[in-house]
Amino acid sequence: MDLASKTVLLTGGSAGIGSEIARLLRSKGAQVVLTGRNPERLAAMQDEGFETIAADLSNAAGVDALIAEWGQRELDILINNAGQLVDHDFRQGTPDADAADDCIYANLSAPIRLITAFVERLRQRPEAVIVNVTSGLAIAPAARQPVYCATKAGLRFYSLTLREQLKDTNIHVLEALPPVVDTQMNDGNPMKKMPADECARQIVEAIEKNRDEANIGMTKALRIAEAISPALARSVTLKF
């Protein structure tokens, strides 16, 4: 896909991978509208010249407000990048059920709701792309983050089936599977982290090349291990 003049809705675009994706897309001529929850980060992106929409995607009301704010604008690319990470570890005590609910909605329900709202809009364009950002942990889970892993695995399978449903249309479905990336969400994670700008570069490249999947960084090795032995892949990630 040629990104010049494309209109993009990018969730979770005010920091981390999202802000780097926004900058790259703009450098290639796309018109990027990004969402986020943090007023200071949104203001910083506005200072860079981006159009922003404040949106809390951890609940239906927040998603519906975003859809209403978008109105009848054209849309070429929908990037479901926003996500939440929640520790849910019974070895450390009773987890916060409300935090789990927010994570489930933000990571799985919100992308589904946005896709459902915008798919007909995307059909109206000569070519369109839906990008769902999942995780290497959608392939093999980490022990202390079962809710996060479950939501990403759910979005992975949703992406696979959505691609099959839309294969004869103008809409391409790309799943991006990052490794652990150097963002605020991963502060305190002892694992080696990929720079956010390199992760974003690989996602944007996958959009341009019309790929079905972008297995990024260590996720490539995890995919190989999973193909050889799912148990082997799980034995590695379950330690974390």
CATH architectural group: 3-Layer(aba) Sandwich
Number of strands: 7
Largest sheet: 7 strands, parallel
Listing every helix as H and every strand as E from the N terminus to the C terminus, the arrangement reads EHEHEHEHEHEHEHH
Give the number of domains: 1
Class inferred from helices and paired strands: alpha/beta
Low-confidence stretches: none
Please list the strands of the largest sheet in the order they lie side by side: 3-2-1-4-5-6-7
State the name of the first-level CATH class: Alpha Beta
Shape: globular
Into which percentage range does the β-strand content fall? 5-15%
Helix content: 40-55%
Q: What is the averaged pLDDT score?
A: 94
SS summary, helix count: 8
CATH homologous superfamily descriptor:
NAD(P)-binding Rossmann-like Domain
CATH topology: Rossmann fold
What does this structure look like?
There is one protein chain. This protein is an alpha/beta fold and about 240 residues long. It has one domain (about 5-235): NAD(P)-binding Rossmann-like Domain (Rossmann fold), CATH 3.40.50.720. Helix content is about 45%, strand content about 15%. The protein contains 8 helices and 7 strands, in the order E-H-E-H-E-H-E-H-E-H-E-H-E-H-H. It has helices at about 15-25, 40-45, 60-70, 95-125, 145-165, 195-210, 220-230, 230-235; strands at about 5-10, 30-35, 50-55, 75-80, 130-135, 170-175, 215. The chain has a 7-stranded parallel β-sheet with strand order 3-2-1-4-5-6-7, with helices on both faces. The longest helix is centred in the middle third of the chain and has 27 residues, at about 95-125. The termini are far apart. The mean pLDDT is about 95.
